[in-house]
Amino acid sequence: MLNVVAIMGRLVADPELRTTTSGINMARFRIACDRNFARQGEQRQADFLDVVAWRSQADFVCKYFQKGSLIVIDGSIQTRQYQDKNGNNRTAVEIVANNINFAGPKNSSGSNGGGASYGSQPRQNAQPAARPSNIEAVPSYSAGDTDDFAVIDDSDDLPF
């Protein structure tokens, strides 16, 4: 059987870290994922998906991500049955995260929720660094002549 999910979206709220009675860290959070198309004259719709991360993935998401952070998750879909406060049977559908990664550039405050900028885009208006005056210019080989190259005779035996 195959149960694989790859999803990218923005966190709706800060992730919530909990620890089980056996001492295992678990984080729950919800992401908003835009749909691929929008009907003409309507706004694009979004799906709000619940995600669960365990152990080191839970620590990672709580440390480096916050509300509004762009996030990429791959994992699997899992369902569970429970009873609500009124005794009604309910089914929860969640994505269990296997890998969590950064998806966007650092924000204006200098961090991507506190972490590195994996997947960040290069600055469009970046200027090349000026070359110090004490370094000689590198020669241009594009101005060379084809007579500068010699044909190597490889008809003999190999030299090794």
Automatic annotation (TrEMBL):
<dbReference type="Pfam" id="PF00436">
    <property type="entry name" value="SSB"/>
</dbReference>
<feature type="compositionally biased region" description="Acidic residues">
    <location>
        <begin position="145"/>
        <end position="160"/>
    </location>
</feature>
<dbReference type="GO" id="GO:0003697">
    <property type="term" value="F:single-stranded DNA binding"/>
</dbReference>
<dbReference type="GO" id="GO:0006260">
    <property type="term" value="P:DNA replication"/>
</dbReference>
<dbReference type="InterPro" id="IPR000424">
    <property type="entry name" value="Primosome_PriB/ssb"/>
</dbReference>
<keyword id="KW-0238">DNA-binding</keyword>
<feature type="region of interest" description="Disordered">
    <location>
        <begin position="103"/>
        <end position="160"/>
    </location>
</feature>
<dbReference type="InterPro" id="IPR012340">
    <property type="entry name" value="NA-bd_OB-fold"/>
</dbReference>
<comment type="subunit">
    <text>Homotetramer.</text>
</comment>
<protein>
    <recommendedName>
        <fullName>Single-stranded DNA-binding protein</fullName>
    </recommendedName>
</protein>
<dbReference type="InterPro" id="IPR011344">
    <property type="entry name" value="ssDNA-bd"/>
</dbReference>
<dbReference type="GO" id="GO:0009295">
    <property type="term" value="C:nucleoid"/>
</dbReference>
